[in-house]
Automatic annotation (TrEMBL):
Keyword Mitochondrion: no
Enzyme class, first EC level, given as a word: hydrolase
Official protein name in the record: Ribonuclease M5
EC numbers, comma separated: 3.1.26.8
Domain Toprim residue range list: 4-88
Length: 180
């Protein structure tokens, strides 16, 4: 499978695994050591062929993703669930199976720079996405449905607004997951 965009990953092990399965080019951030030079390279790649940010489903990976999205507008984002990218001791893109990597890359998307507000924190409370005993499970379900990883309430609200998903659509997805 040829991937047109350059994939931004955290390290050489991620690159090795992706290139084992796909015909692709990568840019490595070297973990949290994301330099201005690397950001300029990502920006140039975005202008030439597009960029997919595919960092690990952990706190450092989310920090790197946020820094790149803030500095280089218009990048696509691919997410993989933590349970699909881990060993007993480690979490990372390099630990995922080919099928799960393919699915994540097929469902990548670009954030809009100034999204309209389609969901509010009040909607999140009403839908049980915050403040209930099963809120984390509800958010995890939506993260799987929309390929957003496993976000906390604030991050989920931001990502749903960026994708322009409204409360009615979320309610329908929750019903499909048995969270009526």
């Amino acid at each position: 499978m040829k991937i047109k965009e350059v994939i931004v990953v955290e390290g050489r092990h991620d690159t090795s695994v992706l290139q084992q399965y796909f015909d692709c080019d990568t840019i490595e951030t070297n973990g949290l050591s994301l330099s201005e030079e690397t950001l300029r390279l990502i920006e140039e790649a975005r202008d030439r062929c597009g960029v997919i940010i595919f960092t690990d489903p952990d706190h450092p990976g989310e920090t790197i993703r946020r820094r790149i999205n803030e500095a280089v507008k218009g990048c696509k984002n691919a997410y993989i669930a933590k349970n699909k990218a881990k060993t007993p001791r480690k979490v990372g893109v390099e630990h995922a199976r080919r099928k799960d990597l393919e699915e994540a890359l097929q469902h990548c998307f670009t954030y809009t720079e100034t999204p309209a507000v389609t969901m509010t924190m009040e909607d999140m409370l009403e839908l049980g996405l915050q403040g209930r005993a099963d809120s984390a499970r509800r958010r995890e379900w939506l993260g799987m449905c929309y390929h957003l990883g496993k976000p906390n309430a604030k991050t989920l609200l931001k990502r749903l607004n960026l994708l322009q998903v409204d409360a009615q659509e979320v309610r329908a997805q929750l019903a499909k997951g048995g969270f009526a």
